[in-house]
Amino acid sequence: MRARETLALETKRLVEMESRMDQFRERKYLNLETYRKNGEGMRTPLWFVEEDGIFYAQTSSGTGKVKRARRHPGVRLVPCDRRGGPEGEWVEGEAWIVRGEEKERHIDRMLNQKYGVARRLIGTAQKLSKAEPAIIGMRVRG
What we know:
The structure is a single chain. By secondary structure, this protein is an alpha+beta fold. Helix content is 40%, strand content 32%. It is built from 3 helices and 7 strands, in the order H-E-E-E-E-H-E-E-H-E. Strands 2-1-5-6-7-4-3 form a 7-stranded antiparallel β-sheet. The protein is globular, with a radius of gyration of 16 Å.
């Protein structure tokens, strides 16, 4: 009986995780909430791509969201409109800075494919500003 209960609980957890992930499918924006040192949440709408259950977004390495994610990896995520208005349910997650040139190039290509010309223009502007890019990886906690 114990093994069946464990299996049932694990199945329920996986179904709930899939449901939380489904709300992000086919969406253009997600709202990333990171936390200041004083605990205040800061929300930022981002373009993102998903691969193997992990969301990725690119930004400049000097931004507050990057600094906050490095300091405190606990975040909240929700699909949103371009202005950050939530269009789903907030979920708990974790964030980190992605390392590795090959992975960074791969994510850059994925973002270019998803967002087309607008993404390429923003990427060019970032390069001209000489801002160092950073990729944020995000995962829904399960």
